[in-house]
Structures are given as C-alpha cells and as structure tokens.
Amino acid sequence: YQSQYGLDLRKWTMRPLTEQEKNNLLQGPPDLRARQATDYEFVRQAVAGLKDPRLSALSQAFLDEWGERFCRTAAARRYHHARRGGLVEHTAQMMRTAEAIARLYPQLNSDLLITGILFHDSGKLWENALPENGFVMPYDELGELVGHIPIGMELVNALWRRLSTENAEVWKNLAPPSEDVRLHLLHLIAAHH
Length: 193
Fold this sequence. Notes:
By secondary structure, this protein is mostly helical. Helices cover about 65% and strands about 0% of the residues. It has a two-stranded antiparallel sheet with strand order 1-2. The N and C termini lie far apart (about 50 Å).
C-alpha cells in the first residue's frame, strides 16, 4: 500500500509465489532468457562443427550429460556473469572471440581451442551451480576445497577415459595422437587463469 509518505508497512500482505511466478523469477527476465537460449544454441552449433572426432565426442558427451546444469550455472559468484545461466553467456562470448581470432591464425587448432573454451570453466558446475528450484547458490564442498580448474580437469579425464575405451580402435590412428590432444586440452583448462 502506498500512502503520501511512501510505502505503508502496516498494510502489507504476503502470499507464497505460484509455481509460474517462482519459475519466472528463477529464469530471469524474458530478454535475458532469450539471449541465454541463443548463446546455448551457439555453443551447441560450435560443438556440432568440431571436426576432430575425439573433441567432438567429448564435447557432445558433456552437453548431453551436463547441459541442463551448464545452462543454470553462474560464471562467477560476484564479478562477470554472476547470475543463473551466466556460464553459458561467458562461454559463448569466448567462443565467438576465439572464432574471430582463429581466422587470423590458421595454424591454430581451432577444434582444440573451442573445446578448451567449453571445458575451461566446466568445474563451475560444482563451484557455482544454482539448484533447479532455488534462489541461493550454495557452497559446494568439492567446489570450495578443490576449485573449478582441477574439477574441470578431472571431468575431462573421466569423460575421455570412457570415450577412449568405447572408441579405442577408431582413435588409435588419428593425428595428432590422442594422448597429445588430451594433454593439450588439460593444459588449456589448467592454464586459463
């Protein structure tokens, strides 16, 4: 209630939010949701364009398994993209920049660069994840004690082991050697700060 002196606190009424109101609040304003959906689609298309079958399989497995969580994770707690879905925004912006730069440096392995960008902050899915139905980003013990960089490296190694076992025959004769690709990807994650 608004009086001539401002809000009148004595006449407030409260009620629980409806599911629709809660969902709208969790998802953010429509323009932000649309921008994040566009960014996620850009990330998906970048992954679909990877030519190296190892990096393609790894990136696709990540999106298939963790895509929903990726879409609601913040890129930071306070600074850049510190909001639900901020990690998708940050990742898409970095991929767009990398694609522009890679055109100027044809000697770069652009598949490795795009995959490195996808995974560089993947550990934030544990460090900065917002719950599906919550407003507060809880502190995760793994994220607090280990941090997003080692978690991202561990995630890549776990996915890589699984996929390399399933694709051992196909991957063994690819160039550069699979172990070199894995190590360079881990380096991108480890060194990104």
